[in-house]
Amino acid sequence: MPPHECSPDAAGDAPPVTGDGGATGWLDPALLGDIDAWDLQRAGDWLRFQARLAGAPGGARRYLRPVTGGGIVAETGGAVLGLFGLGGGRHATTFPGAPAFAHHVVTAPPPDPDEPDRILRNLRETSGESALADALLGARHAGFRALPLIVSGHDMIAPAPVGAAGPDLLAQPLAALADRLDRLAALARALNRPARLLALRVAPGPDQAPGDADAFHRAALAQLDAIAAQLAGRNLGRTRFLAVADCGTWWQHDAAANRAAIEGMHRLILRPGVHQLIVAAPGYMFAQDDLGQPTPQAQAARAAIEAHALDADLARKDWACPLLCLAERHDGVIRATFKTLGPLRIDPADPFDAGPAAGFALAGTGAGIASVTLAPDDPGAVLIRPDGPLLPSPGATELRLDYATGGPPRARHTFAGPGGGFGPACGALRDDWSAPAPDSGTSPGAAGGTLHRWALPASLVIRG
């Protein structure tokens, strides 16, 4: 039989309850429709009841639904949290199916034409933001911690060249974000609770190929500045920008733009201005299809590691993927020093098919790489031995050490088939942190069913 209009499959379209607006005491649970509910009461503008509904965390608990109709939410404590995203189209990918914590992860979008304006709706699809919210709640549930109410949503920044990456380009997505923030605050007021912004997922930098690294860095900082200005004065707590170092795979067709993106993102991570930028992972650890879109398993893997990064920040703990900070040569050997929270590892499994150089490459010279080894005297350094003299190539003005900036395609760098593939801009260097991967089949980026903190793409001038 088809689901009732108030069942969890259609909770976002639940109709209003008519009758005495001042009614109190026991109400017939049949008012909620064909769901397993009991102990229905009216509390102001809300219907409060116990029910056994589909989805996590399972079992019976207390729920709320607006009297005027709309979604069903779990009754929770603390602030109502916002988890929103701003970025290009490939970061707005959604997949069918509601979040696992379907009544803890909701949305408060503007209404569609000819639709009533509900204060909240339940989700019927999973986006990157709702997947992250799900991952956070799953970890908290496993640890018997409080499960907050999280409002998620994503707004697109339209593609445009670097020269247009200013206030005019951001006007429409920032207006959409402002509306989401207003609706978050309205929902929190209706629940008599404070509103807080948990994090804002961003894809910094221009969506079209950048002119050079400086242009990329300036465009990314301008975006973060404009977003921060929109958030100022809203009393939503500290602004956390959450990002993935995802640039090289997007411009693989253009070697110069690819390098500018890698170098520009590297500069942004090193110099994010006044902003708190949490870089959860490199984009190369997540599989994608031939259009550059993440696979469902990759979305789950990304959400899982973003949840670890965000949860670490919430607990005032450090989170950092290994980041190249210095490249210097001495006696024919290049020493690459990384900022890292744990000792470096060159993964022998090479899950992304980075090749024998582990993702390192030399630029501005005809020399290649003979070997890559861990430094015996520094757990945060790598030794790269060239296969010949480091002589500048004709026209080269500097010698550079690259990591995960690209190379010739190898066996796993094909995007055909439902499992997608990995781009050639990848590496095999990580630290010693690990965590179980999501239980969603073979998760790309989770070698052996394990998540790792892989080194971020980078390019530096070789000193010495």
List the helices and strands and how they pair.
Elements: E1 26-27, E2 36-43, E3 46-52, E4 61-66, E5 73-74, E6 80-87, E7 95-96, E8 105-107, E9 121-122, E10 125-126, H1 128-142, E11 150-156, H2 167-190, E12 195-202, H3 213-231, E13 240-245, H4 255-270, E14 276-282, H5 296-314, E15 323-330, E16 333-339, E17 345-346, E18 360-363, E19 369-374, E20 381-386, E21 400-403, E22 429-436, E23 450-454, E24 458-461
Parallel strand pairs: 6-11, 6-12, 8-11, 12-13, 13-14
Antiparallel strand pairs: 1-2, 2-3, 3-4, 4-5, 7-10, 8-9, 15-16, 16-20, 17-22, 18-21, 19-20, 21-24, 22-23
Helix pairs in contact: 1-5, 2-3, 3-4
Quick rundown:
By secondary structure, the protein is an alpha+beta fold. It is built from five helices and 24 strands. The protein has three domains: 8-69, no CATH class; 80-314, SGNH hydrolase (Rossmann fold, 3-Layer(aba) Sandwich), CATH 3.40.50.1110; 323-461, no CATH class.
Keywords:
seven-stranded mixed β-sheet; 24 strands; 3 domains; 5 helices; elongated; 20% helix; 464 residues; disordered N terminus; Rossmann fold; five-stranded antiparallel β-sheet; alpha+beta
Structure description:
This protein is an alpha+beta fold. It contains five helices and 24 strands. The longest helix is centred in the middle third of the chain and has 24 residues, at 167-190. Residues 1-12 and 441-447 have low confidence and may be disordered.
